[in-house]
Automatic annotation (TrEMBL):
Gene3D superfamilies documented for this protein: PAS domain, Winged helix-like DNA-binding domain superfamily/Winged helix DNA-binding domain
Pfam families according to UniProt: GerE, PAS_3
Keywords assigned: DNA-binding, Transcription, Transcription regulation
CDD domains named in the record: LuxR_C_like (cd06170)
Protein name: LuxR C-terminal-related transcriptional regulator
Residue span, HTH luxR-type domain: 151-216
Superkingdom assignment: Bacteria
Length: 217
């Protein structure tokens, strides 16, 4: 990932960046001093104008959902987004994807600081505008996943065998390898994969992996 990996912590008490590391000035054209002094404002300024409405809509969704959860559920809450940054000087567009989760939550469950892991994408994604999803684990242990294209809570309930296959998929194993490891037929693996796709509401393996990565299976 070289210098294109960025790490940042937003402090929601004063809307500043409490911490950031990475080659942010080179990628965005905004000096480090602007991020230190006006963290949230600067972060909004570098977002592509066409992505800002969905960004603001998603922020509203995130906090409404977060504050509707129990405190244990809030500690499992996390979200991801993909967006475009516009370089301040060159106007060059850079696609980035980020995974975010609460880093500091006070005793009352208030969202104090978050942790952003941001990766620059060198190949533009299939989506052409701001994309997002969020997930959390309910008190009863069930996992919930919601995305921009599927805005209704989706409960993930996988069987033990499906979880085994999920973990092997996330390790990069192909169906033949999974078949050998689990001592089941390739046709059985294919059936399990189809069932997993259906339960996740994913159209293909790429979407399946995107959803699975949002959880800690």
């Amino acid at each position: 990932m070289r210098e294109e990996l960025l790490i940042a912590c937003f402090d929601y008490r004063n809307l500043n960046l409490a911490f950031f590391a990475g080659n942010v000035e080179s990628i965005t054209g905004f000096p480090s001093s602007m991020f230190r002094n006006k963290g949230m404002e600067t972060s909004f300024a570098m977002i592509h104008p066409d992505d800002r409405p969905e960004l603001f809509n998603f922020q509203k969704i995130v906090f409404e959902v977060y504050h509707s959860l129990s405190i244990p559920e809030r500690h499992t809450f996390q979200f991801s987004y993909t967006t475009r940054w516009v370089h301040r000087k060159t106007q060059e567009i850079t696609w980035v994807t980020a995974k975010v989760r609460p880093y500091v939550i006070d005793e009352a469950g208030n969202f104090i600081m978050d942790l952003h892991i941001i990766i620059q994408l060198f190949t533009p994604p299939k989506v052409k505008s701001y994309d997002w999803n969020y997930s959390f684990t309910k008190d009863d242990g069930s996992k919930i996943f919601v995305s921009k294209n599927s805005p209704v809570d989706k409960e993930i309930a996988l069987t033990g065998k499906e979880r085994e296959i999920v973990n092997l998929i996330l390790e990069g194993k192909e169906s033949k390898e999974i078949s050998s490891i689990l001592n089941i037929s390739p046709n059985t693996v294919a059936t399990h994969r189809k069932n997993i796709l259906k339960k996740l509401g994913a159209r293909n393996v790429g979407e399946m992996v995107k959803i699975l990565v949002s959880y800690e299976f």
